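4.2 Preliminary Data

To establish feasibility before requesting continued support, the project team ran the inverse folding procedure on a target of 255 residues. The structure was first converted into the token representation described in Section 3, and no sequence information of any kind was made available to the design step. The complete token record follows.
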């Protein structure tokens, strides 16, 4: 089984690039399930019903979120009612939406979990404890992929180790840089620290470079805007053993 995971889509320009290249990549790599992080897919940050539609139209089976998921109030109702839209599961009880879903293909089911880190980020419920609770709730599924939206590389690697042998794969999002540390852990869990982003190449993590420089130099608030120009989609392909659910191959993707 091939699971394609695509890095944070940035702005409508990123959505349009995704729509352009994802269908072909899915065919070429014989993708069974596609997971896309969409928390930055609206211009000006967050995610809207419009940007979510672009991502689903491009071929995503599940859209995951992160710390910007709730920037747009118009998205709350859709998040609450569409089971293929996720937000971090370790947010407080009563938060709109869900942090876990199942892609049901009949002959197999893939559980997808979305978690958020707590190092250098909001003080949410412990992601380690939340992962344990969700795996128990899901009945320890054979196929389980986790999007861990986190800042610290060590926290990402530690959570992967914690889930090793119990989950099929864990990929990091949030930092928008495709890392080169893809690996299969000793228990058979696929891992990569971050799968990058889908958006403009000539930018600072998707933002107009001059605005990021201004922010860094002045230390004053700056209204960010999505950059323009040539785009790139990055992510990772996990190949899972159909019998065991464990990862047998990890491949970076950049288009």
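Position-by-position output of the design step:
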């Amino acid at each position: 089984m091939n699971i394609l995971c695509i890095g944070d889509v940035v702005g409508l320009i990123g959505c349009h690039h995704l729509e352009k290249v994802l269908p072909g990549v899915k065919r070429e790599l014989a993708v069974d399930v596609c997971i896309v992080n969409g928390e930055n897919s609206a211009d000006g940050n967050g995610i809207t019903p419009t940007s979510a539609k672009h991502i689903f139209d491009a071929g995503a089976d599940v859209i995951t979120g992160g710390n910007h998921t709730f920037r747009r109030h118009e998205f709350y109702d859709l998040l609450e009612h569409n089971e293929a839209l996720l937000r971090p599961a370790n947010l407080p009880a009563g938060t709109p939406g869900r942090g876990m879903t199942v892609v049901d293909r009949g002959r197999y089911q893939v559980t997808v979990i979305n978690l958020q880190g707590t190092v250098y980020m909001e003080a949410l419920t412990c992601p380690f404890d939340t992962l344990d609770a969700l795996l128990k709730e899901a009945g320890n599924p054979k196929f389980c992929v986790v999007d861990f939206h986190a800042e610290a590389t060590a926290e990402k690697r530690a959570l992967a180790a914690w889930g090793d042998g119990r989950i099929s794969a864990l990929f990091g999002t949030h930092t928008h840089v495709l890392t080169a540390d893809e690996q299969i852990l000793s228990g058979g869990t696929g891992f990569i620290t971050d799968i990058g982003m889908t958006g403009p190449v000539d930018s600072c993590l998707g933002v107009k470079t001059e605005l990021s420089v201004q922010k860094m130099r002045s230390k004053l608030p700056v209204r960010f805007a999505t950059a323009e120009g040539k785009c790139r989609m990055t992510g990772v392909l996990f190949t899972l053993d159909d019998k065991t659910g464990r990862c047998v191959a990890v491949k970076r993707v950049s288009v």
